[in-house]
Amino acid sequence: MLEKYIDELYEKNDLDDEKLLYILENIDDKSREYLVDKSHKTRMKTYGNKVFMRGLIEFTNYCKKNCEYCGIQNKNRKADRYRLTYEQIMECAEIGDRLGYKTYVLQGGEDPYFNDERMIEIIKGIKKRFPNNAITLSLGERSYDSYKKMFDAGADRYLLRHETASKELYEWLHPGEVFGDRIKCLYNLKEIGYQFGAGFMVGLPCQTNEDLVKDLRFVKEIEPHMCGIGPFIPQKETSLGEYSSGTLEDTITMLALVRLLLPNVLLPATTALGSIDKVGREKGIKAGGNVVMPNLSPTNVREKYALYDGKICTGDEAAECRKCIERRINNAGFEIAVTRGDNVKWSQENPHVPQYDDKIVDINGILGF
Ligand code: SAM
Ligand code: FES
After folding, report:
1. Is residue 364 one of the residues assigned to a domain?
2. CATH number for the domain that contains residue 75
3. To pair with 234 at 20 to 30 A between CA atoms, which of 45, 54, 73, 154?
């Protein structure tokens, strides 16, 4: 029965909720292999064996929010707070470009210091220097107006995980926040014209398979260009510090199911997945993942962006991360693409945006060998 449902999903790129739930309730190692194989075949049709790289710049760990799972939540008095300056951000962009990252992801807590004016200055500064490189923002919830101004300034994409599509679970994890407000932000980003990303955590405390089906249905409906999926990992200074992490197996299952539901989606093999298993990112890529986001932040701030315990890549220089990721991707049987790496459907709709694959990356030179 299970393989029959997986076949139906592979053929139609959709499946009703009861059958999705049946898969989640009954999947074992053997049927997961079958699922991963179908997911791999689907990604080969849309993106081939290419994996896109994004240079992640974690530019502030100040945050006004209190997401219960998150290590940089406002109430964590032990968090050592930092903000990168405009010059530091530009330096990260410069290094990133030389390393072959044609997309920057500017991510941070919800930090009021980075108001629209400051964000616009950063976006315009990067775009002036690197007009062919894409900018992805991941700054949490902001007004329609703010999203629009940053888009008009040149931002290309926006990542805003919905975190969980269960209203009850969402509001338990975000005291005082309204689930509908987050969802409205995603619809606003879509309307404005961003390539936008939703996404969720797997293995959250009290999360059920029914909740995960809601995540699958939500992403199928909103059809994001990107979907960030990673395991929940506890952080010791938070109220959820004693819970266990989401598992590799469950995360792989969800990645594969999302690839089958949304064949064109950009699907990162996340740092969190690499943090719970030594080859988690490789396994994520094999299960349909086609994006990696190596860290470009200065090494002296890496440990401070401690969303969860045991985060990998906190000590490595950007160039080392770049080398390491390429080796891992190649070992898994895939190839890196030195391009903006837009969503394939979006690219077809926007043929005027060049992708570039100029293979100009002299890693050894950058490492000083
Ligand atoms: N402030 C922005 C926002 O809320 O979208 C972006 C930064 S936020 C730290 C980026 C993502 O980290 C969140 O969307 C969440 O899914 C993930 N995250 C936070 N704490 C985590 C944890 N303990 N385990 C796994 N992922 C976590
Ligand atoms: Fe704001 Fe995590 S609570 S980034």
Report:
1. no
2. 3.20.20.70
3. 54
The model's pLDDT over 173-195, given as tens digits with 9 standing for 90+, comes to: 999 999 999 999 999 999 999 99
Q: What is the structure's pLDDT at 357?
A: 59
* CA-proximal residue: ligand 2, atom 4 (nearest): 109
What's the CA-to-centroid distance between 68 and ligand 2, angstroms?
Answer: 9
Q: Is-above-0.90 flag for pTM?
A: yes
Tens digits of residue pLDDT in 35-93: 999 999 999 999 999 999 999 999 999 999 999 999 999 999 999 999 999 999 999 99
Calculate how far, in angstroms, residue 365's C-alpha sits from the geometric centre of ligand 1.
Answer: 34
Report helix, strand or coil for 107. strand
Indicate whether 121 belongs to any domain. Answer: yes
- For residue 10, give Cα distances in angstroms to 3, 6, 166: 10, 6, 26
Residue 213 lies in a domain: yes
Residues with CB under 6 A from ligand 1: 69-70, 107, 109-110, 138-140, 160-161, 163, 201, 230, 232-233, 235, 272, 307-308
Question: Does residue 73 line the site of ligand 2, with CB under 6 A?
Answer: yes
Q: What is the total count of domains within the chain?
A: 1
DSSP string across 234-295: --TTSTTTTSPPPPHHHHHHHHHHHHHH-TT-B-B--HHHHHHSTTHHHHHHHTT--EE--B
Give a yes or no: residue 280 inside a domain. yes
Please tell me the distance between residue 181's alpha carbon and the centre of ligand 1 in angstroms: 17
pLDDT at residue 354, rounded to an integer: 79
Q: Using CA atoms, how far apart are residues 274 and 293, in angstroms rounded to an integer? A: 11
